[in-house]
Amino acid sequence: xxxxxxxxxxxxxxxxxxxxxxxxxxxxxxxxxxxxxxxxxxxxxxxxxxxxxxxxxxxxxxxxxxxxxxxxxxxxxxxxxxxxxxxxxxxxxxxxxxxxxxxxxxxxxxxxxxxxxxxxxxxxxxxxxxxxxxxxxxxxxxxxxxxxxxxxxxxxxxxxxxxxxxxxxxxxxxxxxxxxxxxxxxxxxxxxxxxxxxxxxxxxxxxxxxxxxxxxxxxxxxxxxxxxxxxxxxxxxxxxxxxxxxxxxxxxxxxxxxxxxxxxxxxxxxxxxxxxxxxxx
Length: 281
Ligand code: C2E
Ligand code: MG
Ligand code: MG
Ligand code: MG
Known about the structure:
Elements: H1 2-36, E1 40-49, E2 55-65, E3 71-72, H2 74-84, H3 87-105, E4 112-116, H4 119-122, H5 127-138, E5 145-150, H6 151-156, H7 158-170, E6 174-180, H8 187-192, E7 197-200, H9 202-205, H10 212-227, E8 231-234, H11 240-248, E9 253-254, E10 263-264, H12 265-278
Helix pairs in contact: 1-2, 3-5
One magnesium ion binds at residues 178-179.
Domain EAL: 24-276
Protein name: Bifunctional diguanylate cyclase/phosphodiesterase
């Protein structure tokens, strides 16, 4: 019985792997095509200040739209692009496009642009040079470019990572820890990190109303971060109740579907125009 079960298990497992392998090869080939056709896009999601709900910046989020109109999630193709090395040209394109759009966005206010970094990009020897090159090319200001990194990127080679962060901050870039709370960094480690802000992962925000534990974690992170003089951003705010909760807990910035979804640049500028008219207190 055990043997039969084991064998069934094994067969199931191999079928699963080869299927996944097949689909990842297909995805990778498709991605190559997309790169050649320049078919990637950036969407932008506005970020709001908690106290007056004005837009203070946007986060650039990569989109790959297939020919049939459907979107492939970055959570799905970024790991593949990292494995294949395609992440390098993709990341340079993201940075250039985000800085280019960031310059134009200044017509709508003093807005920062947040960009997500990949571990591979961050750990490359020429990373800082290429960042400076992009700023020179586009004329965007380093102080308005916010770099988002996950805890795992910083844990990989933490001494080197800290040196890179320090160098970035000397160049005036500002740095955020993304998805905060889902990694393993200790509070003492956080204290040593030269970063400017924390983005509380949306899994904690999802249950702040009604979920006692998540409410405690979210308000704990917010008060700890404030004592460390870090700016705190709540990600994934989907309701007014959640917005009110994180605001009352002292969170500085908020982002989420309740306020605005990620959208193409052309829609973003319309949103900004409309929003500034209706939200003038
Ligand atoms: P992230 O940086 O944590 O981005 C936030 C994700 O949450 C985005 O998913 C956004 O669409 C989604 N989101 C925002 N507000 C809400 C909300 O209220 N509810 C819910 N359920 N979701 C919300 P997206 O765009 O699918 O991106 C997924 C992840 O892919 C990002 O997580 C980031 O880690 C990565 N990513 C996106 N763009 C890039 C990029 O240009 N480069 C790199 N290296 N990674 C990227
Ligand atoms: Mg992010
Ligand atoms: Mg996040
Ligand atoms: Mg994430």
